[in-house]
């Protein structure tokens, strides 16, 4: 009886430990966001968003970095989206089980685990030097596109896999070809799931810093990029730059820019979750 | 005609899939070509045994050990923090928490992984380090303790989410068997479910380690840029990734030895994470067969 | 069963009379009413069989007696379940203690992915018993009771997953016996087994009823007829008829019972 009581007590203790652990990360995140808001919120105004960078903290803004992020985001999407979805369709619907498909599978799983900074080294040699793009928006976008490609492929495959087999059977039975089945049935049915994965991948790209530093993105750009071949900076690099400066004012700038970056990231995640829920309901 | 179109489409899709293999080949080629150039000038034995890393000084040393020790130290701190916490979370969510709570807590935890790492770096530098300094007097402004702990927070969801999936995949019949004999949830969790889900849990831990080793911005911001061979968590160190960032920020000429050091450092990092990822993939493959 | 009893484990206050009783029991899963008000008394040291078509609530009802439904989402219960006159759904009842007293064997054999020895010793170990000699004796004793000892005595450290389905199920029964319950609930224990293994388990049940109160859910009416003293027929969450097995199978009172046992539906 005593043993059983002791076991119950241990069980209760672990339960509270589990709750504490679960809340720990979230509480820390809340503390951090709170402290950032206190530091940075007062600094955010329209000027902060529309001003060019400056060596004086109180006059500096994030305009060029923000525009750089937008450019990179759009180009990354244009490059990674068709490539990733096409690869996923091949793996899920066309590939026969065999050496090639298992090689592709191991390879994609491995790519997903390659540290982002390694993609930076790849981009530096291939895009910046060999293809002579220089440290341009285009080189940065290609680098990030390769980085998020495995994520896009994996999530697209999941979404296509979730479409019931009966849909395929039905389409084939009516005489549709494979591609017709994919294009008219599977892609529309898995659209919500694909969208969720793509948005999540892009939210990862928005926050990436290291690979872009490696390909030579600037920490100080006086002008917003106007073409894909222009040099650029992005929001996270701007934040990094401000963090590394000793003057007090820049820390406030960093906090303010972090608020904007978190806003973008959380918004994208929120949209992704929204689409996922909507899509899952539709799929039943 | 229709046949031709179908074949053309299939080939295009195949090409897209094959590009992923090109990426891997590209990474391996780029890293090893530059690294080979590096090792022409620096004997590999020096690279592995020299205890100093000073490529940017006049007295140049090219020993990877200090960078490696910095990487392993920060990763170790992160893992030592994230694994117990993450595993406890996964057990709590999978076995104790009410279902409604489970549904809302999982996306909330995954938000921890969505925060950009540069933001975590700022957190480590401006919040965690000053806080730790208030009761660890000798703590330097840059240190591996603070960076490691914050990195731990970042990888908690990697551990908790995958482990929770593994626990959840354990057939309910085992749970019922253990409860049926009078187990408490705690006994059921640690004596039956965790052993049964061990492969999935191991995978989650390996992936977390791989993630910690490759993490860049947190350590570049909060752990410092001083390569030193030490296990002391209170002093500045430099990781492999932070070194690559440091060189990239400076003005290093293409083709110079300094330029090549980042590829030598990069290939070291790549080999580590490649081995870890391959290992976890193998386990995952086996694990999947077990339950399907 | 050896009478060597470890003072730590066995609560002397538990009487070895093992009568089960349900009073006005209703069970809900969210809004669905799975059990619609059942009153029933189950006799000590007898085998009672629950029969009825799939979804009639017989398994749900069985699992009330060791509170296994507690973990099912949306589960809610009204009424009382009494064991020897004690309501087991009272707040202060220790569920782990209850389950030690009311053992359960499941539909599919569910050995833990551990060695044969560890499987049988599990229930004792979680009570904190560490005495190796006692554990060993207990494992041997339990395996002998289910006539598995001779088949596995040289392989005690081998994984239980390597046993055949029938052996696994006997192992699960041995595992249940090792903690010395007074009541054993069996939820279709032979439905996943071949005829030969089924025969062995039925034989075993026949022997076990000398010492235990056994309640068994079964799909197989021949089985119910062969091994049970009493049989209860459930239909759509209600207890339709409950009587001595001989009587129920040869001369049922209710039309529904007759339809079912003669195979007109189910």
From TrEMBL, chain A:
Domain named ABC transmembrane type-1: residues: 66-272
GO molecular function: phosphate transmembrane transporter activity
A Pfam family assignment: BPD_transp_1
Signal peptide coordinates: none
Entry keywords, A to Z: Cell membrane, Membrane, Transmembrane, Transmembrane helix, Transport
Transmembrane segments: 16-38, 62-91, 111-131, 137-156, 186-206, 254-275
PANTHER family from the UniProt entry: PHOSPHATE TRANSPORT SYSTEM PERMEASE PROTEIN PSTA, PHOSPHATE TRANSPORT SYSTEM PERMEASE PROTEIN PSTA-RELATED
Family label: Belongs to the binding-protein-dependent transport system permease family. CysTW subfamily.
Protein name stated in the entry: Phosphate transport system permease protein PstA
Automatic annotation (TrEMBL), chain B:
Subcellular location: Cell membrane
Keyword Cell wall biogenesis/degradation: no
Membrane topology, from the record: Multi-pass membrane protein
Alphabetized UniProt keyword annotations: Cell membrane, Membrane, Phosphate transport, Transmembrane, Transmembrane helix, Transport
Superkingdom: Bacteria
ABC transmembrane type-1 domain mapped to chain residues: 68-280
Function: Part of the binding-protein-dependent transport system for phosphate; probably responsible for the translocation of the substrate across the membrane.
Family: Belongs to the binding-protein-dependent transport system permease family. CysTW subfamily.
Protein name: Phosphate transport system permease protein
Organism: Salegentibacter flavus
TrEMBL record, chain C:
Keywords: ATP-binding, Cell membrane, Membrane, Nucleotide-binding, Phosphate transport, Translocase, Transport
Positions in coiled-coil regions: none
Domain ABC transporter per the UniProt entry, residue ranges: 20-261
Subcellular location: Cell inner membrane
Stored PROSITE patterns: ABC_TRANSPORTER_1, ABC_TRANSPORTER_2
PANTHER family xref list: ABC TRANSPORTER I FAMILY MEMBER 17 (PTHR43423:SF1)
Protein name, UniProt field: Phosphate ABC transporter ATP-binding protein, PhoT family (TC 3.A.1.7.1)
């Amino acid at each position: 009886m005593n043993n059983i009581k002791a076991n119950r007590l241990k069980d209760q203790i672990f339960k509270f430990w589990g709750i504490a652990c679960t809340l720990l990360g979230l509480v820390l995140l809340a503390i951090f966001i709170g402290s950032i808001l206190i530091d940075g919120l007062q600094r955010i105004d329209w000027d902060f968003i529309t001003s060019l960078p400056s060596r004086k903290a109180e006059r500096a803004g994030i305009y060029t970095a923000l525009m750089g992020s937008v450019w990179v985001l759009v180009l990354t999407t244009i490059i990674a989206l068709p490539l990733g979805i096409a690869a996923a369709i091949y793996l899920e619907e066309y590939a026969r089980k065999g050496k090639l498909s298992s090689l592709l599978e191991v390879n994609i799983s491995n790519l997903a685990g390659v540290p982002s900074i390694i993609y930076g080294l790849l981009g530096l040699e291939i895009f910046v030097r060999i293809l002579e793009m220089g440290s341009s928006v285009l080189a940065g976008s290609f680098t990030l596109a390769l980085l998020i490609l495995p994520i896009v492929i994996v999530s697209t495959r999941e979404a296509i896999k979730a479409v019931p087999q009966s849909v395929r059977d039905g389409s084939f039975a009516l005489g549709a070809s494979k591609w017709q089945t994919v294009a008219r049935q599977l892609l529309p049915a898995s659209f919500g799931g694909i969208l969720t994965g793509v948005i999540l991948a892009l939210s990862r790209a928005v926050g990436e810093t290291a690979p872009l530093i490696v390909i030579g993105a600037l920490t100080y750009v006086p002008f917003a990029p106007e073409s894909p071949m222009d040099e650029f900076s992005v929001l996270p690099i701007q934040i990094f730059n401000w963090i590394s400066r000793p003057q007090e004012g820049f820390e406030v700038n960093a906090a303010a820019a972090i608020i904007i970056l978190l806003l973008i990231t959380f918004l994208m995640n929120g949209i992704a979750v929204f689409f996922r829920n909507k899509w899952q309901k539709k799929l039943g | 005609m229709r046949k031709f179109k179908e074949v053309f489409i299939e080939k295009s899709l195949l090409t897209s899939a094959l590009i992923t293999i090109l990426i891997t080949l590209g990474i391996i080629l780029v890293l090893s070509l530059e690294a080979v150039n590096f090792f022409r000038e620096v004997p590999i034995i020096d690279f592995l045994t020299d205890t100093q890393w000073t490529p940017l000084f006049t007295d140049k040393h090219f020993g990877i050990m200090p960078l490696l020790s910095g990487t392993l130290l920060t990763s170790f701190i992160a893992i030592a923090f994230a694994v117990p916490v993450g595993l406890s979370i996964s057990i709590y969510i999978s076995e104790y928490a009410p279902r409604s709570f489970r549904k809302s807590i999982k996306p909330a935890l995954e938000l921890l992984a969505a925060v950009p790492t540069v933001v975590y770096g700022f957190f480590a530098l401006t919040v965690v380090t000053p806080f730790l300094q208030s009761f660890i007097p000798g703590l330097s402004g840059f240190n591996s303790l603070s960076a490691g702990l914050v990195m731990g927070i970042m990888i908690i969801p990697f551990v908790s989410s995958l482990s929770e999936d593994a626990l959840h995949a354990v057939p309910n019949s085992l749970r019922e068997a253990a409860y049926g004999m009078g187990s408490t949830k705690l006994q059921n969790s640690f004596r039956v479910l965790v052993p049964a889900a061990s492969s999935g849990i191991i995978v989650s831990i390996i992936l977390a380690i791989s993630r910690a080793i490759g993490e860049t911005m947190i350590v570049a911001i909060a752990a410092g840029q001083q390569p030193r061979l030490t296990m002391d968590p209170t002093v500045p160190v430099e990781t492999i990734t932070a070194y690559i960032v440091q060189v990239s920020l400076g003005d290093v000429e293409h083709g110079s030895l300094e330029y090549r050091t980042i590829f030598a450092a990069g290939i070291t990092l790549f080999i580590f994470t490649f081995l870890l990822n391959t290992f976890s993939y193998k386990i995952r493959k086996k694990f999947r067969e077990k339950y399907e | 069963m050896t009478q060597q009893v470890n003072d730590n484990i066995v609560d002397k206050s538990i009487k070895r009379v093992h009568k089960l009783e349900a009073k006005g029991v209703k069970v809900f899963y969210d809004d669905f009413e799975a059990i619609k008000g059942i009153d029933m008394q189950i006799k000590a040291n007898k085998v009672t069989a629950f029969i009825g078509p799939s979804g009639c609530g017989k398994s749900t009802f069985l699992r009330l007696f060791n509170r296994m439904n507690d973990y099912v989402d949306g589960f809610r219960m009204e009424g009382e379940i009494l064991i020897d006159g004690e309501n087991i759904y009272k707040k202060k009842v220790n569920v782990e203690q209850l389950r030690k007293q009311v053992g359960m064997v499941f539909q599919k054999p569910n050995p833990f992915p551990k060695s044969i020895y560890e499987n049988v010793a599990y229930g004792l170990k979680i009570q904190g018993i560490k005495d190796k000699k006692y554990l060993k004796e207990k494992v041997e004793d339990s395996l002998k009771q289910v006539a598995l000892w001779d088949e596995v005595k040289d392989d005690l450290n081998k994984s239980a997953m390597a046993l055949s389905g029938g052996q696994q199920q006997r192992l699960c029964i041995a595992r249940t016996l090792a903690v010395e319950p007074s009541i054993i609930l069996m939820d279709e224990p032979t439905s996943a087994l071949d005829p030969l293994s089924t025969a062995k388990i039925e034989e075993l049940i026949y022997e076990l009823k000398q010492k235990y109160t056994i309640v068994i859910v079964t799909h197989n009416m021949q089985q119910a007829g062969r091994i049970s003293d009493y049989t209860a027929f459930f239909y759509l969450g209600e207890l339709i008829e409950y009587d001595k097995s001989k009587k129920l199978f040869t001369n049922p009172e209710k039309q529904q019972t007759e339809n079912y046992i003669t195979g007109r539906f189910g």
